[in-house]
Backbone:
């Protein structure tokens, strides 16, 4: 989709973000996005140096969705996400050092080194897990919503999912069941336009995935996933609906991943110029520009925030690296209670 | 003595008793509510506990199992039904990749007190996609417990134990036994304890569900010939009460396992392998596995009868073991 038609679909003018008001917690939001960006850059480096096993799926470029949606969480809400989930997990409050440690397979990792990059979870923060099977977190997220409804907690279960997952059976089963039972669930499709190596158009006959909401009788909302405050607004509406017992909302957040699908994918299938076009819509500089234009911070202040976050992420990584690998007997623990 | 109940009534009673005892217990599945279950094993629960705790679902097996997982992680004790055990194939990812693994993958953070009920087994003319005893599909997936009740007592007690267990338990309820009558036991209700069904000195016979009853039939006939079978029902396949089998084998020196389902990759073959490995010195003769034919389950009555091991097959195998 071209920039023009994309903006038209979102009802945006060419003026873009200029003139947006800045939220009072802008610095926290910016820092979290920067944390995720730096975290992912570091993970990429760790792979290069052979410190990470298996595969990893990076989310540079998609930070505004994780941060925008998770900014609406209150204690007791529940988050689940995809294997491209480092961003969502960090945005939901997981400690950076423990997340690094999990990816490095260390005892002090979020899951004791049993899960790795594709399986980050921190139940103490309501993060019930990233999931390595496409879309498999959706039925589980529905169950968390059912628990909230059953106990009348007023809490919400938010599930991030990818564009590719909208074609699996469990997506349909889950969204339908959430709709039938009016569960307090928010499903956020992070549409980065590629299901693994295949462009969306090659696998999906519709262009706007939120249109699927019609078939479940629930609201479907399209949002520019690289516009932090726009994401916050649609998420806020969806959370209100959920908390008021009005049932689920399907949000499609349009975005792009700067990296390939996984560590072994150089993303050669992308048409020339596409990445560059999306880099021009990178959510972080965009939000920084909003902050600067509103006079909330000077370029120098923004630069020093970037530098501080970089140091913070690096020191979290150094801590994680210093932690030991799991003891051998851990192999047999946690299979059963 | 109180009136005897059928297996289906015992199942319904076990669920009701757990729901009475714990407000976190909920039940859902296809037609388990207003209709009382396709097998009438949940009759009366919807009326008694209401549509919030007894929910009819869409025909969505993946969502049913996944919903149970998510609800359990958040502290409920869901009982999910996926009707015919064959339909477990539709939900295999949620059962084998999610339910079985999430405690491990989260480093022990996730508690998974999930009970999944399914109707098992052949003999009623449902053909190949509604007749399988599918418990063997899950033997190779650490993290799941597997219950295979074969009596009214066990339908009640194993289901109550499953609901109270903090691990996922798959409970297979045999379709051909649902009408059988028996007494409701008092507690405690535990998983992992085999039952000595019938004592005997000559051959240790291990069998579950429908096969357990056929083994007893065979034992009664062979007793007339002076051959005494000791019939053991493991009641749960995970955990498996190896000790009870080994103790019996040490006396009889002969092992016969009777399994509904093809022989390969099943609990019967696994049990024989374990016993051969750890108790080789006990065997007087090679162990024997009586199992179903290695074919899909046929529809025609005569073919399905031929597919299922019968008491005659048990008798022949036992005679062989004793005479060799």
Residues:
């Amino acid at each position: 989709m071209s920039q023009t038609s994309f903006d038209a679909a979102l009802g945006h003018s060419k003026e873009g973000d200029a003139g947006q008001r800045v939220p009072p917690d802008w610095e926290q939001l910016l820092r979290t996005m920067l944390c995720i960006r730096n975290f992912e850059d570091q993970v990429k480096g760790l792979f290069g140096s052979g410190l990470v096993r298996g595969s990893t799926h990076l989310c540079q470029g998609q930070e505004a969705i994780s941060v925008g949606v998770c900014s609406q969480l209150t204690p007791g809400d529940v988050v689940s996400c995809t294997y491209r989930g480092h961003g969502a997990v960090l945005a939901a409050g997981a400690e950076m050092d423990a997340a690094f440690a999990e990816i490095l397979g260390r005892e002090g990792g979020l899951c004791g080194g049993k899960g790795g990059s594709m399986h980050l979870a921190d139940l103490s923060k309501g993060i019930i897990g990233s999931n390595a099977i496409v879309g498999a977190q959706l039925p589980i997220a529905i169950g968390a919503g059912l628990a909230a409804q059953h106990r009348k907690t007023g809490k919400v279960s938010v599930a991030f999912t990818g564009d590719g997952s909208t074609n699996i059976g469990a997506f349909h089963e889950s969204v339908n069941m959430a709709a039938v039972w009016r569960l307090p669930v928010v499903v956020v499709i992070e549409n980065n336009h590629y299901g693994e190596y295949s462009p969306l158009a090659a696998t999906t006959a519709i262009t706007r995935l939120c249109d699927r909401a019609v078939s479940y009788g629930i609201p479907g909302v399209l949002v520019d996933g690289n516009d932090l405050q726009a994401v916050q607004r649609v998420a806020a509406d969806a959370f209100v609906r959920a908390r008021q017992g009005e049932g689920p909302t399907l949000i499609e957040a349009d975005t792009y991943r700067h990296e390939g699908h996984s560590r072994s994918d150089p993303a050669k299938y992308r048409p020339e110029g596409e990445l560059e076009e999306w880099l021009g819509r990178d959510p972080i500089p965009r939000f920084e520009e909003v902050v600067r234009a509103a006079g909330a911070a000077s370029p120098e202040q923004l630069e020093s925030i970037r530098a501080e976050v970089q140091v913070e992420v690096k020191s979290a990584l150094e801590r994680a690296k210093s932690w030991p690998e799991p003891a051998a007997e851990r192999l047999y623990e946690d299979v059963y209670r | 003595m109180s009136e005897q109940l059928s297996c289906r009534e015992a199942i319904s009673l076990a669920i009701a008793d757990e729901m009475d005892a714990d407000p976190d217990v909920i039940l859902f599945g296809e037609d388990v509510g207003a209709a009382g279950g396709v097998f009438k094993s949940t009759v009366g629960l919807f009326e008694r506990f209401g549509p919030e705790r007894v929910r009819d679902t869409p025909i969505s097996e993946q969502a049913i199992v996944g919903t149970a997982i998510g609800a359990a992680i958040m502290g409920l004790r869901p009982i999910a039904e996926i009707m015919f055990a064959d339909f477990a194939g539709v939900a295999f990812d949620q059962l084998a990749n999610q339910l079985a693994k999430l405690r491990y993958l989260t480093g022990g953070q996730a508690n998974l007190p999930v009970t999944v009920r399914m109707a098992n087994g052949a003999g009623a003319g449902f053909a190949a996609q509604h007749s399988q005893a599918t418990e063997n599909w899950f033997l190779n997936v650490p993290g799941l417990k597997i219950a295979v009740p074969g009596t009214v007592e066990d339908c009640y007690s194993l289901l109550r134990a499953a609901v109270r267990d903090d691990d996922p338990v798959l409970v297979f309820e045999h379709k051909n036994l649902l009408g059988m009558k028996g007494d409701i036991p008092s507690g405690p209700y535990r998983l992992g304890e085999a039952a000595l069904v019938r004592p005997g000195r000559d051959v240790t016979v291990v069998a579950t569900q429908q096969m357990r009853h056929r083994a007893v039939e065979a034992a009664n006939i062979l007793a007339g010939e002076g051959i005494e079978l000791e019939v053991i029902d493991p009641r749960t396949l995970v955990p498996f009460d190896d000790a009870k089998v080994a103790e019996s084998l040490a006396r009889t020196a002969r092992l016969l396992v009777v399994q509904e389902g093809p022989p390969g990759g099943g609990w019967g073959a696994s049990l024989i392998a374990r016993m051969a490995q750890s108790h080789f010195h006990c065997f007087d003769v090679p162990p024997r596995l009586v199992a179903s034919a290695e074919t899909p389950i046929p529809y025609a009555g005569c073919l399905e009868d031929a597919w299922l091991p019968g008491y005659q097959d048990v008798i022949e195998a036992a005679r062989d073991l004793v005479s060799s």
In short: Chain A has a mean pLDDT of 94. Chain A is about 40% helix and 10% strand. The first helix of chain A runs from residue 3 to 10. The interface with chain B takes residues 78, 109-115, 119, 121-124, 128-129, 131, 133, 136, 138-148, 150-151, 157, 169-170, 173-174, 176-177, 180-181, 333-337 of chain A (CB under 8 Å).
